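User: I'll paste a sequence; please echo it back and then give the predicted structure.

Assistant: Echoing your sequence first, then the prediction.
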Amino acid sequence: METSLRSAYQQIDPDFKIIVVCHEMPQLQYSYDDRVEFINVDFPPPSKIVTDLTMKDKWQKLQIGMVRVGELNTDFIMFMDADDLVSNKLSQYANSNKSTNGWIIKKGYKYRYGSSWIYIDEHFNCGTNAIVNSQVIKFPKSLNSEDISQCVVLKHSHTVIEQRLAALGTPLTVLPFPGAVYIHSHGDNDSSLYKSHKSWYGIRHFLGNVRRTRFLTSNIKEEFSLNF
């Protein structure tokens, strides 16, 4: 989790806020200022690591986080999964374009934990894929179902949020640079997403994958805090 936190924290533009919703305060290697806020939930973690339970846990945490974010008068919000990394250019770009409805990340990276190579994904789709202007969101003031149902980013998952916002007349713009890294094969992430992309390793896609695979450069490492 701290790898993801460090990635979000290392933004070029220091005008940002990170809300971490967790079951217990993690042991951290680094220190953070008040731009990072931890919220400990009062419900137990999933009894076992299966997709239904982990996704329920995730959405409960997102709901709690959104109630808090609604109190902060933010310009944009972005959900970030605990096994993803983000570009250090995001806050700078967002703060320079505050009139935009937000952005969808169409281009990102997939990284196999421990590898010296990284894969460019031009159809990027994971839980860390959208930055949404707060003006198009009705933030929940409580955790009751009516409040939650009126919040578009809690009502619709990352797989359909682009379409739903477009249907509401507030379309997202494609982020013009790779915005995130999905890390897999480290043992902590929900395997369902990895399995959905297992064709990456299929012979049928071999040539395309070779073309999109790049050496993990120092610039990419620095931009995404990819330091393993």
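DSSP finds nine helices and eleven strands in the chain. Residues 191-201 have pLDDT under 50 and may be disordered.
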